[in-house]
Write a structure and sequence with these properties.
- With 694 residues, this protein is of the alpha+beta class.
- The strands form 6 sheets. It has a 5-stranded antiparallel beta sheet.
- The two termini are 46 Å apart.
- The structure holds adenosine-5'-triphosphate.
- The site of adenosine-5'-triphosphate has 28 residues, from strand 4, strand 5, strand 6, strand 8 and helix 18.
- Residues 45-69 have a biased composition (Low complexity).
- GO terms for molecular function: kinase activity.
Length: 694
């Protein structure tokens, strides 16, 4: 099963090809590590520690003179083992490796020690891992260039033509972001003296799928090249390391952090300026066949000059006519997730990003998130209440997996105009289009950019006219929220969950996936591992899952038990009061399983869901479905219905399950209660983490 991100153009098709100034045979370039490199190594002690030896390798050839030559590329001719003649003798085959030794590119040359044996002049045997051996010339060259063999084997395209940077050429300054799958650090590039952001990604190098998943983000980033898209400047890793840092230009703000700064109020022209950049960035992504799938304020980064760049392509994927495999619907942060994804669509396109864009546009005027749902059920309800429910025709035509469960008996009336009557009319008109419940009515980035909002006065601000803000990021907002919560104490706990204030930080797209992280951390213990310690389940005690926005009970087997579980279908069915509840629990499961990045989570936590997915053949272009395993007891003969379990125990739905009235409220109340429990638990967990971290 080919990963879809390896299709299409080669990753380095879009890597700038600068003038080649130097051809160097690495045999002649061998040098002893110089003093400077040792000195630098010391500076990165902290990273070397958490980087599983990333910083422990010598810098080898040190700073070649070429390094200081701006806007030049060093081309290395590296002899590599002939793919056909796979012995140790070096064939005089040469591979070109690019190195742009300008201030803006960070890739480094390999050390000769890594490439050629000192005495014989033959190649060192590439380090093999459990994954597979290096079998062809290109991969061999990548290993020689300093890439770990497991990475070259599994994700060669992501590193094609690049040479890894060493951790010891950076000075780590502070942690600036914590995502579901990464920690982000502010650092200084000791070669260029520039500030950079180092995103440490979590994956398990013993797990090819997990590596490919990480590679997808890199491949996508390398395919994009636009002023409004974060550019991947390089990668830090080593042959002995199990971790990887992505190097980005350092950005002072993110839109979520900035928007929530007390006293910061954006003018209409300023909002236009940000929205314009967002749409231009998205237009570029879409034109390169990339869906971002996690557009939200904290992923829109701003530099000191107010240039906006779309960041975090961890959930991005390719789309288009070549994309035959269904996509996962478990993407996009809940508050910004379009209804078709909540209804289980696996065949979607650019319009998912446009929905999120509409949410952000309205939020910037509104001063706070417009639909802060806590569960998928609640999110969908909020959407229908604001944007109306889809037309009969749409329900019929779209055949969305959860349509039967969530189609309201009575259609909901749209009230966007009433809700946002304070918005300028041109802004409201654009919000109306972008927040169309039916995806096809949302238009394109291009049509949005042509809309009156951008073509009428006041025009988008000139960057020079905008104020310079104090650095403020989502992580600061989260810290502030935490602090405020602590101060407020327990008395206001209930109100908190009901109110969303200006600048409330959005849940992560994958906030529900702590279990998944835990699994990763098990493979790749690092400094953050303690934060996500896996607590052994106490046998016999049903527990509530530690998810932030969805709750599921965990049985003594450690499985997430959903109503209707195949373990004890009858008992489970008895506990169900209505189909509505079943629907809710079903979605709660999905809420827990936004695991677009790591479907392996399901193998642990959601066996039941696996059954559904396995059989629904929703082989996801995102790899999440690759992790699917046949459920225990699965036989070919049993018919599985996505979202409904085995046919034998399937409930036959004769009509809409959610009425616009009482049942839904009851269901939401139940969710509310479950959320309270989960929030309390999560808070207790966070406190422990804080204590652990001093
Ligand atoms: N280039 C950068 N410069 C400065 N800060 C950055 C940069 N890239 C990311 N950050 C900060 O780090 C945070 C987390 O980064 P990112 O969103 O890429 O990680 P993630 O693990 O994918 O997060 P999430 O789980 O929220 O999707 C961002 O919200 C941002 O505040």
């Amino acid at each position: 099963m080919g990963c879809n991100c390896t299709k299409g153009t080669r990753a380095n098709d879009n890597v700038e090809n600068d003038t080649i100034i130097n051809n160097v045979n690495v045999k002649e370039k061998r040098r002893k590590p110089n003093k400077t490199s040792k000195k630098k190594k010391k500076k990165f002690v902290s990273s070397a520690k958490d980087n599983n030896n990333v910083g422990s390798e010598s810098e080898g050839s040190g700073n070649n003179n070429n390094n200081n030559n701006d806007s030049t590329t060093l081309r290395l001719l590296i002899p590599i083992a002939d793919a056909k003649n796979n012995d140790e003798v070096v064939a005089e085959k040469k591979v070109h490796l690019e190195r742009k030794s300008s201030r803006s590119l960070f890739q480094r040359r390999p050390t000769t020690a890594e490439v050629v044996d000192n005495n014989t002049g033959t190649l060192q045997q590439p380090m093999m891992t459990r994954i597979c051996s290096i079998s062809n010339g290109e991969r061999g060259a990548q290993v020689m260039a300093g890439w770990p063999s497991w990475l070259a084997s599994v994700a060669g395209e992501a590193i094609n033509g690049w040479i890894p940077r060493k951790a010891d050429s950076f000075e780590k300054l502070e942690k600036i972001g914590q995502g579901t799958y990464s920690s982000v650090y502010k650092a200084r590039d000791l070669e260029t003296n520039q500030l950079v952001a180092l995103k440490k990604v979590r994956f398990a190098n013993t797990d090819p799928d997990s590596v490919r998943f990480m590679a997808r983000e890199i491949i996508i980033l390398r395919r994009l090249d636009h002023p409004n898209v974060m550019k991947l400047e390089g990668l830090i890793t080593s042959r002995v390391s199990g971790s990887m840092y992505l190097i980005f230009e350092y950005m002072e703000h993110d839109l979520a952090g900035l928007a929530s700064t007390p006293g910061v109020n954006f003018s209409e022209a300023q909002i236009k300026y940000y929205m314009k950049q967002l749409l231009h960035g998205l237009e570029h992504c879409h034109s390169r066949g990339v869906l971002h799938r996690d557009i939200k304020g904290s992923n829109l980064l701003l530099d000191q000059s107010n240039n906006l760049k779309i960041g975090d392509f961890g959930l991005a994927n390719f789309y288009g006519s070549h994309q035959k495999q269904p996509l996962t619907s478990r993407v996009v942060t809940l508050w910004y997730r379009p209804p078709e994804l909540l209804l289980g669509s696996t065949d979607y396109g650019v319009t998912v990003d446009l929905w999120s864009t509409g949410c952000i546009l309205a939020e910037l005027f509104n001063g706070k998130p417009i639909m802060p749902g806590r569960t998928e059920v609640e999110q969908l309800h909020k959407i229908f209440k604001l944007c109306g429910s889809p037309s009969e025709e749409y329900w019929k035509k779209s055949k969305l997996p959860h349509a039967t469960i969530f189609k309201p008996q009575q259609p909901y009336k749209r009230c966007v105009a009433e809700s946002f009557k304070s918005l300028p009319s041109s802004a409201l008109a654009l919000v109306e289009v972008l927040l169309a419940v039916e995806p096809n009515a949302r238009g394109t980035t291009d049509s949005a950019l042509q809309s009156e909002f951008f073509t009428t006065k006041p025009f988008a601000s000139e960057p020079s006219s905008l104020p310079k803000y104090q650095p403020r990021k989502e992580i600061d907002v989260k810290a502030r929220d935490e602090e405020a919560k602590r101060k407020k104490g327990t008395s206001s706990k209930q109100n908190e969950s009901k109110q969303v204030s200006k600048g409330a930080s959005a849940p992560d797209a994958n906030a529900e996936l702590l279990t998944s992280i835990q699994k990763r951390e098990k493979f790749n213990p690092g400094e953050d591992a303690a934060r996500y310690r896996i607590e052994p389940l106490k046998s016999g005690t049903p527990q509530v899952g530690n998810t932030r926005y969805g709750v599921s009970s965990v049985n003594r087997y450690g499985d997430n038990v959903m109503r209707g579980s195949s373990r004890s279908p009858r008992k489970e069915l008895r506990t169900q009061r209505s189909f509505v509840q079943r629907g809710a629990s079903q979605l709660t499961r999905f809420s827990n399983s936004v695991a677009a990045r790591d479907g392996s989570h399901f193998a642990i936590a959601n066996p039941r869901w696996l059954e559904d997915s396995y059989n629904s053949r929703q082989n996801d272009g995102d790899w999440s479905q690759r992790f699917l395993v046949k459920p225990k007891g699965y036989t070919k003969h049993k018919e599985y219905i996505p979202g409904h379990g085995e046919k034998t125990e399937r409930m036959h739905c004769s009509g809409p399950l959610v009425s616009a009235g009482g049942n839904l409220n009851e269901m939401l109340k139940e969710h509310e209660r479950q959320i309270q429990v989960a929030v309390r638990k999560a808070r207790a967990g966070k406190k422990t983490n804080r204590d652990d971290n001093g």
